[in-house]
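Question: does this match?
>
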Amino acid sequence: MSWQIKVPGSTANLGPGFDSIGLGLSLYLTLEATPQAEWEFVHQGGHVPADTTVENHLIYQIAKQVAERYDKALPGCHVVMTSELPLARGVGSSAAAIVAGIELANLLCDLQLSVQDRLNISSQIEGHPDNATASVLGGLTISSMADDGFVDTIHVQDVDVAFVLFIPDVELKTAEARGVLPMQLDRPYAVKASAAANMLAASLIAKDYGRIGRYMESDLFHEPFRAQLIPSYAEIREAAKQAGAYGTALSGAGPTLISIIPTAIADEFVISMQKQFPAHRIVLTTADQHGLMVTHL
């Protein structure tokens, strides 16, 4: 018995939806897993960890942790791993690996996890539910995580726009990006920031893309503090707006930026952005519609 585990990457926050709004992208981490006596990872293509052992491989560590959580011994496995998700760029590579590791344990140990189990465990390990829920469910997710680790998610599908990623050739660790954030916000400032987040969530559910773009660019929780870490932050936002984007925001903690654009202008938008920002990799994608998928091979 062998399985293919396919997990979408994701973008998170979309501006003021800090640590709570996620969107699955049609860019994937894929594992082909076959039980065997010993653990073995084979990495193919780019965007996969280099110089890693089985013991320090994130996917193995997550699978082992989940098996132990259910008092199971984790069997060996041969895993072929490919990825379209650049590491430390803000497109959910770690959350996708966590979701994949949980699913590996689920299959190898026959845990029979529910969707809610997957949401809870992945968000607990990740520390927040935005990327994790988007990788499990696909589409748009608006989520909260209670103190006991239970994740409540509103799931919106059929997001009928295109997305363009501006990926610079630099990494930005989430810990570094969090390090520039203030520990406290004044009440009037926090009220204004919260209002923008509420309007973003409502606009996303209503699929009012004009408002989505406006509130994506109205964040006060993190982007004003992280902008200094992001190559060409202000220039990309302005150029994307001039080229017809609804709005542009950091993808997760950055350094990637993401624009939401009408599907009809996608090709010309990408050509224009490639000319203006040759130091960035410009990637056109769509919202993933399925979330985590497991296929018997």
